[in-house]
Specification:
The chain is of the alpha/beta class. Helices cover 36% and strands 19% of the residues. It has 2 domains: 42 residues, no CATH class; 230 residues, Rossmann fold (3-Layer(aba) Sandwich), CATH 3.40.50.1820.
């Protein structure tokens, strides 16, 4: 007896989204262009057969697809705690995630969000850090504004209107708080993405005795005059197509060499700014995993 299988319905594949669309999103996400300009530029691609819903669905984050470690994962324990930030906004708040298997103390890693507050992707990264055996702490720069508002556009607007120097001091306070936490061995690493990558570079320069290892993902360097203070080993993660951030690398590298800093730089081919963020179309799964494996190994080496 033969059974008849109906042919699967063929879906017409979209051509790859052109690189300029990713560049426009990067400009929009970093305040170079406003939303109206971003949308009008995207609209020019509809003539090439793209729908706006497809373009926006690919470029804008979808946090429902981004969770790699459940907040209910039995191997970790997460909670929100506050810390004092006298030189910043007075008080900070963040997501502390600890590995259940670790008895006693463990090295700690500060996880620093992008320019839009503690969104679900960064909270998930904190859980990944804890799963790797570290105490993870992800502060939310938007704490005094009520915290991450639930969407990136509003979060970006809120963070952009805040005093940047005070935000930086909040992260300095968070680093010191985490280093001295009762669960911490006193060895502190920091990993950050985009604006958070800048914060990692900044912490290495302004509190060199606090940070023991730094991994900035596609972050710009600290102000030139303070780079000479960097002591911690650094792993710089860059994306080949991220021309905006990459322009600063040669000068930063020269200053790291001059300061005698131990550093490695990985340039991920054909990757966009944000390639580690698994909630957007910029995500590059293979390179994101490679970059993450390198990050965890780097922290295990330098925070042991």
């Amino acid at each position: 007896m033969s059974t008849h299988h109906s042919d699967p319905v063929e879906t017409v594949p979209h051509p790859p989204i052109p690189q300029e669309a990713f560049d426009w999103y990067d400009e929009y996400a970093h305040g170079v262009i406003d939303r109206r300009t971003f949308m009008s530029r995207l609209a020019t691609l509809t003539a090439a057969g793209f729908t706006m819903s497809y373009l926006l669905g690919t470029l804008m984050p979808d946090y429902a697809i981004a969770e790699q470690v459940s907040f209910n994962d039995p191997a970790i324990k997460g909670r929100y705690i506050t810390f004092a930030s006298p030189n910043g906004h007075g008080e900070g708040r963040g997501y502390l995630v600890t590995p259940v298997a670790v008895k006693g103390k463990a090295p700690a890693v500060l996880v620093v969000h992008e320019n839009r507050g503690l969104n679900p992707y960064i909270a998930d990264v904190a859980r990944r850090v804890a799963k790797a055996g570290f105490i993870a702490f992800a502060p939310d720069a938007l704490h005094t504004k009520g915290g991450y508002p639930g969407n990136d556009d509003e979060g970006r607007t809120l963070q952009g209107a805040m005093d940047r120097a005070k935000i930086e001091q909040d992260f300095v306070a968070a680093a010191k708080f985490l280093k001295g936490h009762e669960l911490s061995t006193g060895k502190l690493g920091a990993v950050g993405f985009c604006f958070g990558g800048y914060i990692v570079n900044m912490l290495a320069a302004v509190v060199p005795d606090v940070l023991n290892a730094g991994v900035p993902f596609y972050g710009t360097p600290a102000a030139k005059e303070v780079r000479k203070h960097i002591k911690a080993p650094m792993m710089i993660q860059l994306a080949e197509l991220d021309t905006r951030v990459n322009e600063s690398w040669s000068g930063y590298e020269a200053d790291l060499k001059a300061a005698g800093v131990s550093y490695t730089m990985h340039m991920y081919p054909k990757c966009n700014h944000g390639f580690h963020n698994d909630s957007t179309g910029r995500y590059d799964e293979k390179n994101a995993q490679l970059a993450w494996d390198r990050t965890v190994a780097f922290f295990k080496q330098h925070l042991a």
